[in-house]
Amino acid sequence: MASDxxxxxxxxxxxxxxxxxxxxxxxxxxxxxxxxxxxxxxPKLAALAIAIAAxxxxxxxxxxxxxxLPGPLEVGRELMAQAQSPQLWDGLVTTLRRxxxxxxxxxxxxxxxxxxxxxxxxxxxxxxSMITALQTMPSxxxxxxxxxxxELSEKAIFFVVVLGAAPSIANGVISGVDYVPxxxxxxxxxxxxxxxxxxxxxxxxxxLPAIVAGLKQGWAFSWRSLMAGELLVVGISQTSLGAQxxxxxxxxxxxxxxxxxxxxxxxxxxxxxxxxxxxKAIRRRWGxxxxxxQ
Amino acid sequence: xxxxxxxxxxxxxxxxxxGVTKVYGRGASAVLALDxxxxxxxxxxxxxxxxxxxxxxxxxxxxxxxxxxxxxxxITLAGDANPGLMFQEPALFPWLTxxxxxxxxxxxxxxxxAQRRERVAELLRTVHLADFGRKRPHxxxxxxxxxxxxxxxxxxxTRVLLMDExxxxxxxxxxxxxxxxxERIWSERQLSVLFVTHNVREAARLADRIILLSxxxxxxxxSTEVNIPxxxxxxxxxxxxxxxxxxxxxxxxxxxxxx
Lengths: 294, 259
Known about the structure:
The complex is a heterodimer of chains A (294) and B (259).
Chain A: H1 2-24, H2 33-60, H3 72-83, H4 86-119, H5 121-136, H6 143-150, H7 154-178, H8 182-190, H9 196-232, H10 241-250, H11 254-286, H12 288-291
Chain B: E1 15-24, E2 31-41, E3 46-51, H1 57-65, E4 72-77, E5 84-86, H2 98-108, H3 113-126, H4 142-154, E6 160-164, H5 172-189, E7 192-197, H6 200-206, E8 209-213, E9 220-225, H7 237-256
Parallel strand pairs in B: 3-7, 3-8, 5-6, 6-7
Antiparallel strand pairs in B: 1-2, 1-4, 8-9
């Protein structure tokens, strides 16, 4: 009897290992880093080339005089010149500093607000829909009030940046917490995670993808609000990127204007790419990318 | 009314339910899910709960697991460890590796790091997944995920295992093998198991005792000991005979609702 049990358990072991090997087979497909990078890069380069070509064609068509719409070559030369002068870098530093301060503060406000609303039914009933309403308010519409409250100061810009970004971040947290699978909550509670531990071990990691989406959207809002603010609240700083846009327009310096715009675009793209990478890393960990055939 | 208590009791019962009632909602819309269910699970006993839809099987497990409160009656658990609960889905945390999933209950119990490592390795060996600790749940098959879930539940160091149709979503071959595995682990670790299923053959394959619950509300209507020697095979005539008997009773119960 005992030996019978032993052989049967040895057989079971072999069966299990065999079944696992069959089920796992073909799930690992490794693509080299270089291949993946190139696959992600070339469409972007091609699109950029097409955009520049179209721009050049419009310029060649003579639709607008070259002093209001210069060609890509001229703007490129201006950009190189700008890159060698401190003005552009000072402007970039000023703008990025404002963006960072405003964004970090927005993240703090957004996370706390989102968590509070997600936890409390009373708070949700009271201000849940207001957060969404705030999100739909064009940030530029806040500026007249901000200028009345804080005059033409950095505070006015800060005020609008936070109002623009915090609701998106809060919404991300709320939807993240709302959509934590109830099954995972039950499993977590059964494993001994109660109270704060339930947040640490289950809710926070489960909500992370939605929170990152909220952070990304919050960044987009704060960057736009900041640009609007710098255009409107000129005079407090000579060098911010927004101020340079205003000055270049006043001086009818189209190459300067366009090269500044390109810098603003590139900053937005770089930050967006960072969020995209974070988002992708999370989805890979969760195994969501595999199902999408990536 | 009385509430759930979790106090150390005599060693003769691992789980004791006496007159457990559960009502959802209140007033006119109140639904009676469980009506006076009394049931003792002896230490080391394997009890299968069988019933059609709406018999409150899952409700019962939630109550024993302490995830929900009884409306009446009492649930008593021997020992101090809370019972481990397994679901039809593995309910693994997708953001953690297999190792880290199994480690969660150990971390929550504040075990030192070295001890945690050792326990995780031991538990994964128990479920034959020693080589898969670095994988993430989505890289595993359904049966493997369910075994990770079993290892994670065993990490609670509990003597009581509550299983809510844990093999319901698996193919027949994987299920048969997991029956063997569960039987082995159950007897090695001397667990008391309360196993919910609607698969009568599965119940006859695994149980020391099969309990049949009626539907809406859930009441115990039939109970039978399964005295087939182990290890059993699901396709053996003895298992089939028990299954046929229980199926007959189950059909009568289901038919009652069609009248």
